[in-house]
Every structure is written in C-alpha cells, then in structure tokens.
Amino acid sequence: MKKFTLEKNGARIDVYETKEPPKAAVVICPGGGYENLSDREGEPVAKQFLQDGYMAIVLWYEVKKQPMLGNLPLQQLSDTVSWLRDHAQEYRMEKKHIYVCGFSAGGHLAGSLGILWNRKEYFTENTDLKKHRPDGMILAYPVITSGEFAHRSSLVRLAGDDPAKQEAYSLEKWVDEDCVPVYLWGTFVDDAVPVENSLLLLKELAKYRIPVEYHLFPEGVHGLSLATKEVEEPEAQRDPDKHIARWMPLCLEWLDHVMEKKAAVTKIFR
To answer: Which DSSP helix (H) or strand (E) runs through 254?
Structure first.
C-alpha cells in the first residue's frame, strides 16, 4: 500500500494507491455532524476498498469554520473529484469511474455532490460542473432532511438557525433525473439520524427512477462504520456485527455491477 497526503482548498486528502491499475476511485467522507471527523470512518474504510482493487481517497473536509460552514465542505469535495479526473492518467484509472462515499454527515456531503452537482449556485464560479460529477454515491446512515426528522445540529453547522436557509441543504427536495446512482444503507433503530432520512431520499429516487440499492438492517446504533472488530467502540454500543458488516461486500458487488452496466452501454454506443 502506498499512501500520501495532499492539501487542497484547506482540506487534507489522504490518498491510498493500489499496486495495479485500480478498478475505480472512491472518495470517502467521514462523519461527525459537521463538527468533528471520525477516524473510524476514514482509513479503515479506505483499506477495505483498497483491498478490493480500488484507489481510495479520504477527504478530511472543513468542520471548524465559524459561525457556519456554508458550501465550503461541498466545494472541497468538488475540488477533490475534479483533481482526480485531472490526474486520472497519472494514477492509471478511468475518468468515468469516480465514486463518493460518506457516513452520517459525510453521507450528506457525498449525497450533496451526487444530487447537486449540476446546480452552479452551490459552487464557486470557476467550477467545472461536468468534471466534478461523481459516477455514483455510497451513503451510510446519511443525514438527508432539514424537516421533521432532521439531524438538526448538522444543518445548523451548514446554514445557521434559519429554517429557510437549512432547506437549501435538505437533499430530498433537490433530487431530479440528473441524480447519480445510489448505494444506501442504515439501521432501523438509529436514534441519532432517524431512518426517515433515508426513506425520504428513497421516495424521491423512486419518483425519478434513479438506480438505487438500499439495505435496512433491523438493529444497530448510529455510526457503526464497517461494523467489524477493527472499528468497535463498546462504550458507544458500536459492537461488531457480522450481519451488518455485509454492507461492505454488498457495496463492492454493487460497484462492480454499476461499472459493468456502464461498460455495456459504452460498448453499444461505440
């Protein structure tokens, strides 16, 4: 494993390279309520993707800016994906296979790029909207809504106390036919980010016929990461769970399927 670190637009980026040309690249956004960033959702996740042949990038985006973050974390993710496309040849990867993955508030960030990528008002003036579009998104117990089931403190960190400003980050309201394919998972009893966040998103994805794979596990607290021994946190009841840990192998299958489907479509139109 080769790892190196870059800084772009105030964010730290840890890059994990494969020995052989990678299947694709996955940009990982750890969670933490837009106040902190979870180590348990960073390198351990990157190593799992790396083990299966994916180049992995952990984005340690801005969470300390006061009084609110606004679009800064989203711009940092945008810049990271664009940077990857600019350097695709250098890293022996295809430009058309760049995915974003996020946990909790990091899931909101990844989802924001996957849903809002073509809305120029969320990005700086010189942003290339086509270049930063991800090819799919992986959302783990994500923050989605600013409504009744909101993880309110995350929305406050982005937009302050004004409900109207928070609504700009209520992702289910902005899904349209340009949304990218989705892999989504969570737990039914999550009492930090209620399952209704995912269900609201799922409803809109179905409305626009966006390809989605959704796994809802009946048990498990918020913030399980890989749900393996490596990332256990007994004091927070984040114990290893073999059943929930299947989300990662299923996600890797989903990625293979999405790439195979894209390759088939490309072949037809050649």
So the answer is: helix 247-268
Pick the closest to residue 141 from 193, 203, 210, 217 (CA basis). Answer: 193
Q: How far is residue 212's CA from residue 232's CA, in Å, rounded to a whole number?
A: 28
Confidence category of residue 262, pLDDT binned at 50, 70, 90: confident
| Helical H segments across 24-167, by residue range | 43-51, 72-86, 105-116, 152-159, 163-166
Q: Name the pLDDT band for 267 (thresholds 50, 70, 90).
A: low
Task: Report the alpha-carbon distance of residue 56 to residue 94 in Å, rounded.
Answer: 14
Query: Quick check: 191 pLDDT over 90?
Result: yes
For the chain, the domains span: 2-268
Among candidates 76, 115, 96, 70, which has minimal Cα distance to 267? 96
Say what percent of the chain tops pLDDT 70. 98
User: Distance (Å, rounded) from C-alpha 190 to C-alpha 195?
Assistant: 6
CATH 3.40.50.1820: does it fit domain 2-268?
A: yes
Question: CA-to-CA distance for 270 and 267, rounded, in angstroms?
Answer: 5
Question: Which pLDDT score, from 0 to 100, does residue 266 have?
Answer: 57
